[in-house]
Amino acid sequence: MSAAVDTAVEAAPSAAPGQARQTRWERLKSTEFDRAALARTVAVLPIGSTEQHGPHLPVEVDSLLVTEVARRAAERADAPVLVLPTLWVSLAEHHMHNPGSLTLDFSTLLAFVRCVVRSLQRQGYRRVLLLNGHGGNMAALTVIVDLLGVELAMPLATATYWMVAAPAFSRILEGQPNLLHACEAETSMVMHLRPELVDAAAACSVDAPPTGFLQAGGMHRWRNMAHWSASGVVGTPHLASARKGALLLEAAADALAVHLGDERLWAPE
Predict the structure, then answer these.
(1) Domain ranges for the chain
(2) How confident is the model at residue 219, as a pLDDT?
(3) CA-CA distance, 186 to 210, in Å (whole number)?
(4) pLDDT at 19
């Protein structure tokens, strides 16, 4: 979390003109939730992970970054948005051979998300986004949205922030086309947000393949991270910089904000 977020002037969602609206769910008092705007408010659940990120980044990277992107996007969206507390553990079985990694199984992730979305629905919210910050969740969250969208009969969406911002990310990054793992993109964003958490020397010296995660001939099978990289890193972290990190975070927030305010995404069937 950036110091700018921590020290920003905060106000309720219905703040007076010129005041920053409060977008963080956990910072609001119960009496400050705008009940008149429930049906058009987008509730965003950031979903991160706690897993190894090589020798140069901490295990909180995915949770740190998806939280920051969600908050920035909420502040600039042309719609009322509330960002829920981040789910900090998800599907990271492929990292479990590395110390510090934690994982859920699919049924537990589904049960957690179902309970949160049901709670939101009971409160009157009708627009919910599961914002993903971990590659290992992508397929699972698509299935979860399909299941719960039908079960609860409400607009429910999921997005992975670097896929939403893919065109912009490809223009900013030099050594890779998009975000990989503990890579140029993630290292740059953490350098911008929390430089004290980055071991820059290790980022420059780590042995990492520049690409990975490809499935030959359209076939898929489960692989652990060691199959792709002995160091747990895929990409070009030696090319990272805080300047790129600032650009990447802005690009992700801008791209996501457009979708949050897009009425076509939330129109009932």
Answers:
(1) 3-266
(2) 81
(3) 14
(4) 53
How far, in Å, CA of 247 to CA of 180, rounded?
Answer: 17
Pairing of strands 127-132, 81-83: unpaired
Question: And the tokens for 184?
Answer: 């140029």
State the Cα angle at 128 between 123 and 129, rounded to 5°. 150
**159: enclosing H helix or E strand:** strand 156-160
Task: Report the interhelical angle of 184-193 vs 61-76 (nearest 10°).
Answer: 70
Which residues are 24's β-sheet partners? Answer: 83
Write down the pLDDT at residue 268: 83
User: Other CB atoms closer than 10 Å to residue 167's CB: what's the count?
Assistant: 10
Q: How many whole angstroms separate alpha carbon 122 and alpha carbon 226?
A: 43
Query: How many other CB atoms sit within 10 Å of the CB of residue 254?
Result: 15
| Residue listed under structure tokens 């510090």 | 100
Ranges of the chain with pLDDT below 70: 1-20, 214-216
Sign of CA dihedral 122, 67, 4, 247: negative
Q: Which among 189, 175, 206 is positioned nearest to 243, based on CA atoms?
A: 189
3-266 topology per CATH: Rossmann fold (3.40.50)
Nearest to 188 by CA among 177, 171, 172: 172
State the residue for tokens 């086309």.
177
Query: Is residue 59 a contact partner of residue 101, using CB atoms and an 8 Å limit?
Result: yes
Single out the residue of 145, 109, 110 nearest to residue 128, CA to CA. Answer: 145
**What are the pLDDT digits (tens) for 63-96?**
999 999 999 999 999 999 999 999 999 999 999 9
